[in-house]
Amino acid sequence: MLQHTACSFLTPFGWCGLVGADAVLKRVYLPEPDRDSLLGRMAAQFPGMSREKTCFKDVVQELQRYFKGEIPFFDCHLDFAAATVFQIKVWQATRSIAYGQVGTYGWLAHDIANPRAMRAVGAALGSNPFPIIIPCHRVIRSDGGMGGFSAAEGVELKQKLLRLEGIVIEAK
After folding, report:
1. Nearest 5 degrees, angle CA 77-CA 78-CA 79?
2. CATH number at residue 33
3. Which residues are catalytic?
């Protein structure tokens, strides 16, 4: 059985976490105010994980840069083994949305040559295991509304992340 390693770290937004195995990242956990609840969620999804203070140091460093308002550069191996071909297409297209920019669900659907799949794009983004690295928070509705965000703080955190990047969008 594959041994997962995990770490948690404090950012100006709260406690984040990473889980992976053999230098391949399996999951990024967005900030939560309470470290114990974050660790509980991580352990529920990855039973038997071992905790290490220094796992994925480069990813932690880039996430820390991001939460300080700096543009990160992520160079890490992501585990897409559990993803569908459609999800991978959506996530790859989402990675092309630059820091400080936004795209829409419709734009992404067009970009992956499936223009009527806006809801499916939203579902794929909702199951993104690598938020920030795959910047699903940068995707909004075509009417300028926020759309959803599957994080502990929901759309509130999405607004905070966008503001950090200099984008102000009010929830509709």
Report:
1. 125
2. 3.30.160.70
3. 136
